[in-house]
Specification:
- The structure is a single chain.
- With about 700 residues, the chain is of the alpha+beta class.
- It is about 25% helix and about 25% strand.
- The protein has 19 helices and 27 strands.
- The strands form 5 sheets. Strands 1, 2, 3, 4, 5, 6, 7, 8, 9, 10, 11 and 12 form a 12-stranded mixed sheet that branches. A 5-stranded mixed sheet has the order 13-14-17-15-16, sandwiched between helices. It has a 4-stranded antiparallel sheet with strand order 18-19-26-23, with no helix packed on it.
- A hairpin with a 7-residue loop joins strand 21 and strand 22.
- It is globular.
């Protein structure tokens, strides 16, 4: 709502650090007249409002419409949060550790958030990922607009190599110094709600920019933990993200170019001052000490910060400063673009499928630039290229063209899978909700012989993001290769009470990384005993429905050649050389955290037969909730215990003919991303790159 003139005037006087008496002198009226305006007893005429606007240095239309003015770049500053007086310290944003610093994870979390914020339901969200590589004068101009001089000293003080957040910062600063190169990743959405709401009160803006672990999402939306936005900050080498939002509803009379910045650092000192870590970029708030407000920017500021939006539709642009892939496998611009594309296509192909009656939920594109020159123009992702069979299945369902039997490679079978919805626990205000049922939709369609991963089922709900891909087991002999899709909740196209309840139930069954339907703390806290079993039964029923649908469906083949299984058995030719199948696997891991904080592990390896000994280079990894698990170093040499020995390169050679081997190892505590007693650990067995003697 537009504020009245009195509130606007008081706010502007505070922002400009002016008294009523000083304003009275500037506009040539009595202090009593200004006092009457400030207390709402009277409102000045237009001519006097124009004089007030000139005195305050704002546009007349801002004064007339009682809206905050655009802030000039000279008014912007970084404000760092002071450390609490109780001496407590935070070593970075804990929410960021829920995700790996991985571009595929970023693509998934950011796109899910955009889908959840879709504004007009009959139009798709457009999600654009734009990479900018800056060097030379382009880099210098950007850093100047960012006020890099104000934050660099904080970054260097916070770059403490003894903790994970500090090591990432140190590596980022060293990389910037060494290469003179900075990568920006802008994530735009259009036809989204934008960062609406007040500066400090409850609303989308405060939840994204000011708060941590605050979701505020509805039952049909993806996340419930408020963690998804942390992926943006986790993918910045410096923990730095800027935002520019076009609002779907006005805030203080404005809706375009609401901008802010947030920097996530661990606790650090600068001189004699201690800082908690976080900092905000904006206009100083004179009504609150040590605070910066979002600001309404002009076009030149958004352009200098690479945040100018090219469409008037509402939504938000996030700029990840110093974007990188934490796995270390992706560094070049073209590789980063490909990883983003893969992440979007792999998780949201179904959201991008449209039918004859209803369009897609999502349109997504990726582009890259280098110093203002296009490297790869904007390219919208076609789901039918990345997931041809499953996209065909979803389109057939949306168009109402599923079939009862497979007569061609284009047909799509439709079945039904029942989900039992357990009762919710009593809330104290009434009785528990009774159990009921929801009918999910199962789609099965043939896939090509060249499909590298056939016979899988994809789970999804609401916005049709892929929750999990799983290979179906115990399939009938000689079955057609297929792909299957399970649509649950609102993804079925129904919005009745059972679909809404299924959404809530499955949402509570998703862990923070939304990669399964399983037992979670939220599920246990919300539903009566047996909820986990309902999930397991639902998954089993889906796979059984696939088997039932495929029972009478023969593989398409030439009538003269007979079924595929017989052709395979009767094929004549040179006998194939027998190959030893398998690879060494970890059979068991036991261990504990020692007093010095390191993992002490004893690993049993199951070894398949082959003519020559296996030489392996075991790797220990800390398990993260999403993305690639984080490798840690071994402290010293591994210790062979049974059927193995050390090579001169420090690898393990397992004895020829042995079927089982055992070794011990201790992790290097200095390489731990978090304390060992707060972690889970796994051991992998990559083959060593050395010649067996």
């Amino acid at each position: 709502m537009t504020q009245d003139f009195a509130d606007w005037l008081i706010g502007m006087l505070n922002q400009r650090d002016l008294t009523q008496k000083e304003l009275a002198a500037m506009v040539e009226v009595t202090p009593a007249a200004v006092n009457a305006w400030a207390n709402g007893r009277s409102v000045p005429r237009y001519a006097k409002i124009a004089s007030i606007a000139e005195a305050l240095g704002v546009a007349v239309e801002d004064a007339v419409n009682r809206r905050p003015p655009e802030s000039s770049s000279s008014e912007l500053e970084w404000v760092f949060q002071k450390a609490p007086e109780d001496g407590s310290r935070i070593g970075g944003n804990a929410a960021a550790y829920a995700f790996a610093a991985n571009l595929e994870v970023l693509a998934r979390e950011a796109t899910q958030n955009s889908l959840d914020e879709r504004h007009l339901e009959d139009q798709p969200v457009t999600s654009r990922f734009v990479l900018h590589e800056l060097t030379g004068s382009h880099l210098n101009m950007f850093l100047s607009a960012l006020r890099w001089d104000s934050i660099e000293q904080h970054l260097r003080k916070a770059a403490d190599g003894r903790q994970k957040a500090g090591r990432v910062l140190l590596d980022g600063l060293n990389e910037l110094d060494r290469t003179g190169r900075l990568v920006l990743l802008r994530v735009d959405d259009y036809n989204a709600n934008g960062l609406t709401g007040p500066e400090y009160g409850d609303g989308r803006f405060a939840r994204v920019v000011r708060r941590t672990l605050d979701s505020g999402k509805a039952e049909g939306q993806g996340g419930s933990y408020g963690l998804g936005k942390a992926a943006l900050w986790a993918t910045s080498r410096f923990g730095l993200v800027l935002v520019n939002s076009t609002l779907s509803e006005k805030q203080d009379g404005r809706h375009e170019r609401r901008m802010a910045g947030r920097l996530e650092l661990p606790w650090h000192t600068l001189g004699t001052e201690e800082f908690a870590g976080p900092a905000w970029f904006g206009a100083a708030d004179h009504e609150r000490s040590n605070a910066a407000r979002s600001w309404w920017a002009d076009g030149s500021t958004t352009e200098s910060l690479y945040l100018e939006r090219n469409d008037p539709l509402p939504g938000t642009s996030f700029l990840v400063v110093g974007a990188y892939d934490g796995t270390g496998d992706t560094e070049e611009l073209e590789e980063m673009q490909e990883q983003l594309t893969t992440g979007i296509a792999g998780n949201f192909w179904a959201s991008m499928v449209g039918g004859e009656q209803a369009g897609p939920m999502l349109r997504a594109s990726v582009a890259s630039w280098r110093n203002g020159v296009s490297v790869s123009p904007e390219r919208f992702i076609d789901p039918h290229i990345y997931e041809p069979a499953r996209s065909r299945a979803v389109k057939a369902f949306l168009d109402g063209r599923t079939t009862a039997e497979l007569t061609s490679r284009e047909d799509v079978l439709q079945g039904s899978v029942r989900l039992k919805l357990p009762a919710r626990k009593q809330s104290g205000r009434g009785t528990a909700q009774p159990a009921q049922f929801h009918e999910a939709v199962l789609l099965v369609t043939p896939t090509l012989e060249t499909d590298p991963k056939p016979d899988h089922i994809s789970y999804m709900r609401a916005n049709r993001m892929v929750v999990k891909n799983k290979r179906v087991s115990d399939l009938p002999l000689g079955h057609r290769r297929f792909q299957a899709v399970l649509l649950a909740g609102l993804a079925t196209g129904h919005s009745g009470p059972d679909a809404l309840e299924a959404e809530q139930f499955l949402r509570t069954a998703e862990p923070p990384d939304h990669n399964d339907w399983t037992s979670t703390e939220d599920l246990t806290a919300t539903y009566v005993r047996g909820a986990r079993q309902c999930i397991l039964n639902f998954k089993k029923a889906a796979e059984q429905e696939i088997r039932d649908l495929l029972k009478d469906q023969e593989e398409e083949s030439d009538a003269d050649e007979g079924p595929q299984i017989l052709r395979d058995l009767l094929t004549l030719g040179t006998p194939k050389k027998t190959r030893t199948q398998g690879f060494p696997v970890v059979h068991a891991v036991s261990g504990e955290v020692a007093g010095n904080g390191a993992w002490q592990l004893r690993v049993t390896v199951k070894i398949p037969e082959r003519e020559e000994p296996w030489v392996l280079s075991p790797v220990a990894r800390f398990v993260v909730r999403s993305g690639v698990n984080i490798p840690v170093e071994w402290a010293g040499m591994l210790v062979p215990e049974q059927a193995c020995e050390l090579t001169r390169n420090g690898n393990l050679r397992f004895q020829e003919g042995a079927r089982r081997g055992v070794f011990r190892g201790v992790t290097d505590m200095s390489s731990h991303p978090v304390a060992a007693d707060m972690s889970c650990i796994e051991v992998d067995l990559p083959r060593a790159k050395e010649i067996v003697e």
